[in-house]
Amino acid sequence: QVIDKVMSHLNTKFPGKYQRDHCSSLRYRTVPTVGLELDVICRTPDGETERVTLVKEFSVPRLAFHHDRPNTSITLIVPLQGRLHTLKVFLANLRVVLGQGLLQVGLTVVYFNDLDSQKVQQLLKATEDQTHNLKTEFIPLKEKFSRGLGLQEGVRKTRLEGQVMFFCDVDVLFSREFLTRCLNTPVRGYQ
User: Fold this and answer.
1) pLDDT (tens digit, 9 = 90+) per residue, 143-159?
2) How far apart are CA 110 and CA 81, in angstroms?
């Protein structure tokens, strides 16, 4: 569209002098008070150059989609074995993120049995007690560690009722904005 507009202008001013393939340089920038400014430079094989600037003004915003009722809670499913220190870092980050707003989060840890099982349960309970908008759940498994199995069992056995489930690894750190996007992006039956 930009090249068509430039060609229309140039052919009115210089009939037959410029062809579409002469206009290969296009730059653009956003001018906050105006819109999108587009610079097009056209060069003939003889070296003659014309520079044309177009402005695509900002238009009035239009409604694309209205989410009737935003999701209000998210359940994180985390398969885990060992990695107690990494879990402590994960939970510390989660406490900070949840302290910044009214997000309701459930954390289901599917734990593949080892010597730290009791410590993990205590850590989850302590974190839940310190964080008013966090519910935790510990699901023990006796099988050999498998991330896929852990996620599947987490979905199947969780009693936490988040409207959105998010599969997560224990070494992932995220922000409140990320969790908000996770909650607001899914639309049941749509996306």
Assistant:
1) 888 889 988 889 888 88
2) 8
